What does this fold into?
Amino acid sequence: MAWLGVVLLVAGGATVLTADGRLGGVDLALAGAVALAVGAFLLVVAILRLRRRRRPGPVAAGAQAYYRTSTGKIVAMVVAVLYIVSPIDLIPDVFLPVGVVDDATALTWLLFAFGQEYTRRSRARRAVAAGPERAAEPSPGSLPRRGSSR
It folds into this structure.
């Protein structure tokens, strides 16, 4: 749902900024604004779902059975979506191309944050699926190398 929201947000924003006229009786700027609004809604819903508590896994897995995103990161992600959609910017969008750079920066950070949360959640899921005996084993990258002073 988050990736669909990102696609609609980008496509709607590009349409609003660049399209002019009608296509098949539909005003392109209005269609872009609707896509932008739907994309923003989907993104905010997906961000708020990050905080939802997951069902704990096996009892032996303990407190590491789920992963929750911090409230501060969720607030920052929602603010980034609202900043991208909002017509009020640090640098107005009419000053092309510099005006679009602040929105693009917020979108880039948002994509990075989503990727980071996806990676963290998938690692937590794999640790639970591996069971407590595998979770207690050190990973090969954490073992000291021969001849190292670690």
Summary: The chain has a mean pLDDT of 77. Strands lie at 22-23, 26-27.
